[in-house]
Amino acid sequence: MRVLMVDSERTWRGGEAQLRLLIKGLLEGGVAVELAAPPGSQVYKRTREFGLPFHPVSMSGGMDVLSAWRLRGVIRRGRCDIVHSHASHAHSIAFMACAAIARDRRPFQIVSRRVDFAVATNKLSGMKYRYGADLYLAISSGVRDVLIDCGIPADKIRLVPSGIDLEKFSRVRNNDYVKKEFGMADDTPVVGNVAALAPHKSQVDFIRAARIVADRFPDAKFLIVCEGAIRPKLESLVRELDLGDRLVLTGFREDPLEILSTFTCFVLSSYLEGLGTSVMDAQAMGVPVVATNTGGVPDIVEDGVSGLLVPPRDPEALAGAIVRVLHEPLLRQDIVKEALARSRGYDYHNTVYKTLEAYRELGR
Length: 364
What we know:
- The protein is built from 14 helices and 13 strands.
- By secondary structure, the protein is an alpha/beta fold.
- The chain starts with a strand and ends with a helix.
C-alpha cells in the first residue's frame, strides 16, 4: 500500500499535529507514506525525522491549477494507491490532480474532515465534496452530521476520531518557570484557553467571561495560548474590559503542555469545533474542563461527568461554569477522575487503526 498525504497548510495547527501522528503510526505499521506540502511548511519540518519522501507543492489556494498539475505528476510517478488530503485547499488540488489522471490509473481519494463548517454551499463546492473523495474520515459525530446535512452520502463517511500521544505527558517538565514568567503563585487560580486565535474559537467570549470571573476571584489569572489573525481584536477587548495584566495573550509557545499543567480550569470557548484535541490534552493531564456544547465536543465531554458544557456564544454561562469549577473542589475532583479514565481511549494508535481500516476497505 502506497499512500500520498497532501496538506496545504504552512503553519502548525491541530490538523497538522494529527497528520504527524498519523504518518508516524502508519510508518510504524509498515505502510509506504509520502508527503506533498508547501516547501518550508511546518508539517514538512516536523516530519523530516521520519525520512519519508517529500514533494514540495506550493498550493497557494483551492483553485491553484499549476499546483494541481504538479501534484498530478507526483501521483503518477509514485503510483500511489491512495491520496489522502488533510485540508480544504489540499482536497481541492488533489481532486483536480486525480481528475486529470486516466480512470484506470487513478488512486482512491480520502479526505480527513476535522472542522464542522458547512460544505457544498455552491455548485463548485458541491462538485468537490460530492465527487472529490471516495471516503471522508470525520473526526467526530458532529463533523459527520454536518457532512450528511450538506448532502454527502452517509455510506461515504467513516467516523475516525482524532487521537493524542499519551506518552508525551510523561515528558512534561516542572512548571515553576511558567509560574515565575507570568507572576503566578502556587495557589493562584489559573483559567486558560489553548486554541488558534480565530473567529470560530471565540476567545472574545472567553475574555468577556474572564471579566465576570475576575470580579469573583480577584487573584485569578487568565491565559490564552496561541497566535492568530484576530489577536489585535482580542488585545483591544482586554483593554476595553480593563483586565490589564490579569489576562495574558502568550502568543505561540513551544511549551503548551507545561503551561497547561498550571491551569486550574481549561476553557474551550468555540462556537464551531470539530472535536478539540486541546480538550483531550487537558483531560489527560488532569485539568478540569469547561467547554461549549458544539460540534464534536460532546463526544469527549459529558456534562457534569467528565467536564461542564455550556451553550456557545454565552459568556455569562461560560463564566458561571468556570466559577463552579474554581469554587467547588469536589466537583473538580469528580470530573477529573472520570476524564482521566476516559482519556486512556484517546491514544492516537486508535486513529491509525481506524484509518487503516478505511484504506483496506477501499482496496477490497
